[in-house]
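Sequence in, structure out.
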Amino acid sequence: MLPCRGALDNSMPVHHIEREKQETRMPQTITTGYKTLLEAARREVEGLSVDEARALHGRSDVVFVDIRDPRERDREGKIPGAFSCTRGMLEFWVDPESPYHKPIFAEDKKFVFFCAGGWRSLLAAQTAQQMGLKPVAHLTDGFSGWKKSGAPVEEPVAKPKA
């Protein structure tokens, strides 16, 4: 199958490429969509407002877990003191039987997961909770809500241009 016209040479406007993507039908039938997954997770996982999370920030019995991609952290900044764990490594870092286990997840602390907007962190917190990590919660408005509120942020360091 060839890529859509203009995909390789950028000659096609992005909105036209998006329209072609929307018109493409998948051969699979998705039976459980992301909205259903998020709704189920909301019933199981404690959600924290920015104010509630700010009240926990800096406590020795709480770990903020940043599951954003490193490029997001480099671009947007970080919550000071947060532990970085990309979403793709979460299960491997939480499980003490994994060769990739991180000892921080064996500590007797509350784990507050966050991403940019709250969706990935909700699913990550649910997964960690299902694995037995507790207590867990997630920042419902994500890092963007945290930053917008004026909460403490470690701004990204400008990288020198090569």
